[in-house]
Amino acid sequence: REHPIFNHSLVPNSNCRFKTKEWNVSFKVNSLGLRDQEYSLEKPDQTYRILLLGDSFAEGFGVEESQSYQHLLETKANLSGYPTEVINAGIQGYSPILEYLYLRNKGLVLKPDLVILALDLTDFSDEQRYRNLVTSPGKKLESILESDQDAWQRAPMFGKPIPSVTWLPFILVQVKWWL
After folding, report:
1. Can you give the pLDDT at residue 118?
2. Residue ranges of E strands in the chain
């Protein structure tokens, strides 16, 4: 669904079957609007909480939730005797700027001990697409970035378009266009 800050989000408490020629998986969204099991806002005592941010790869696109890498990580950590929650905040089509906005507006409320940002090559083109994202009537993404100017000076790629020659400078331009 459309979202005024994140461009789009999953519908909380929804279920569907996602069927293509390649897979047939159930897709359940929890009350937090994440493709994951239910978690309380309050972190349980003695539990290490990890928040995973990313796009469809993090979300577990095309696999059952029980086969997603964050679920497998959580299971392995708990079986090893380390009480751990790995909260999957991956949303198809997100890019680093949307993941940052999610973290700032919703993710930190979960009080994670660790935040993992899962990056992949689609993030470069998605980032360019969301650069001019309107986050509320009359308010452009640049105004959000100005409110966190110090943080964004450390990552100026989010404030202005990135020339294609800057992306992965060691890769030929023809390969970049193909990607």
Report:
1. 93
2. 2-3, 7-8, 15-19, 24-28, 48-54, 84-90, 114-117, 134-136, 139-140
Torsion angle in degrees (nearest 10) through CA of 140, 142, 144, 149: -170
The structure's pTM equals 0.74
For residues 133 and 7, the answer to whether their CB atoms sit within 8 Å is yes
Which residues neighbour 64 within 8 Å (Cβ) at sequence distance 6 or greater?
25, 26
Q: Which residues have C-beta within 8 Å of that of residue 68, sequence separation ≥ 6?
A: 59, 60, 88
Best CA proximity match to 51, nearest among 73, 31, 78: 73
DSSP letter assigned to residue 3: E
Per-residue pLDDT of 40-58, as tens digits, reads 999 999 999 999 999 999 9
For tokens 């940052």, what's the residue? 100
Give pLDDT tens digits for 106-163: 999 999 999 999 998 888 777 777 765 544 455 555 555 555 444 434 444 444 444 4
Residue among 39, 70, 73 at smallest CA distance from 57? 70
Name residue 142's amino acid: E
Residue 6 burial (10 A CB sphere; 0-12, 13-18, 19+):
buried
